[in-house]
Specification:
This protein is elongated. It folds into 2 domains: about 140 residues, Response regulator (Rossmann fold, 3-Layer(aba) Sandwich); about 160 residues, Response regulator (Rossmann fold, 3-Layer(aba) Sandwich), CATH 3.40.50. Helix content is about 35%, strand content about 20%. Helix 1 packs parallel to helix 2. By secondary structure, it is an alpha/beta fold. The protein has a 7-stranded mixed β-sheet, with helices on both faces. The protein has a 5-stranded parallel β-sheet with strand order 2-1-3-4-5.
């Protein structure tokens, strides 16, 4: 969902194309992009689209310089945040000649596409697919993930909360998550990691993202004045859940931690400031010292795209972000806080 996670997926596709040995017969490759143009993660669509375009352009340039008769192009379809729509989008791209697929971002979409498309032996790259449920898919070697799984993100969240509180012993963390594989798996992973450190868990509170109000769930979350909160949600739903938490009169966002789906670079305007300012969280990224990162970052900056802050991989050192006002450019953005030692 994010630019630096996309570095890996885009460069895997782009550099792989550019490194194919020269051959007599020309080869034309079509990269199918399964984008979140609409739906709960629509804020990720533009960056994903741009990342793949840059990789394709770079690959074509390098192939030409090397005298390799290979050219790639990209085509796109909107998965709409819906499993059935995602499967239809994937089939549409394949019908248009897609050699491989990149995306989507949401677990139910990914499962639907894998079950419906892998039998056609299409290679699929998941740049943001972190759910542990995705490990159960029999993909016959056609699916590749370029981001650490939620089993590692859970450890990163636990390390981040422990760093903020100074200790884990006896500390109560209230957990709330949206009812889907991503939220369930990450919540369970965090709870296990936190309790293993001697901490206590309240809940978890589970909510249906389609429900009209979240007042009951918000009240349960803030009960007993927990030492911290862990919130696993998407931006569109958190606009409502965050408002409900604020209405309790007991919610303190500086005690809250969120996972990668809420690690946006610019805070949506419909999320109340009182629900997010001072909040911390984790997200996966790519090591910034690699050649692939440097190449992609240079392409990204030259393209004039809004820069997203670099994040270290959650597999090693969970780097925290903090929501804060920066009126000079964006009124409410996320800035890096501190890097804590990995678990």
């Amino acid at each position: 969902m994010r630019r630096n996670i996309l570095v890996r997926a885009a460069l895997v596709a782009g550099l792989a194309i550019a490194s194919i040995p020269a051959r007599a017969d020309p080869v034309n490759l079509t990269i199918g992009k399964l984008l979140e143009v609409t739906g709960p993660l629509s804020d990720t669509g533009p960056s994903q689209d741009k990342a793949v375009k840059l990789a394709v352009e770079y690959a074509n340039e390098q192939a030409t310089k090397a005298g390799v008769a290979i050219q790639a192009k990209d085509i796109a379809a909107d998965v709409q945040g819906d499993p059935q729509a995602a499967l239809s989008a994937a089939r549409s791209l394949i019908d248009q000649g897609a050699s491989c697929l990149i995306g989507p971002s949401i677990t139910p979409e990914s499962i639907a596409i894998a079950n419906g498309v892998t039998i056609q032996k299409r290679v699929t790259i998941w740049p943001t697919g972190t759910s542990m449920r995705l490990r159960t898919i029999k993909d016959e070697g056609t699916i590749f993930r370029t981001v650490p799984p939620d089993s590692l993100q859970a450890l990163a969240l636990a390390a981040g909360v422990a760093d903020k509180l100074g200790t884990t012993s006896g500390k109560l963390v209230s957990v709330i998550y949206r009812n889907e594989p991503y939220g369930e798996g990450l919540a369970k992973g965090f709870a296990a990691a936190w309790e293993a450190k001697g901490g206590k868990i309240q809940g978890p509170v589970v909510f249906d993202p389609a429900q009209a109000t979240f007042d009951s769930e918000a009240s349960q979350t803030v009960a007993s004045n927990p030492d911290a909160y862990v919130i696993i949600d998407y931006p569109d739903t958190y606009a409502k859940l965050g408002a409900a938490l604020v209405r309790t009169g007991k919610f303190d966002p500086t005690k809250a931690f969120v996972a990668d789906a809420l690690a946006f670079s610019t805070v949506p305007s419909n999320i109340p400031p009182q629900a997010i300012e001072g909040m911390r969280g984790t997200r996966g990224g790519t090591p910034i010292g690699t050649d692939a990162y440097k190449i992609f970052d240079d392409l990204w900056q030259k393209a004039g795209v809004l820069s997203i802050l670099p994040w270290t991989p959650i597999v090693s050192t969970p780097q925290l972000f903090v929501s804060s006002p920066q009126p000079q450019r964006n009124p409410r953005t996320l800035r890096p806080s501190q890097t804590t030692s990995g678990p």
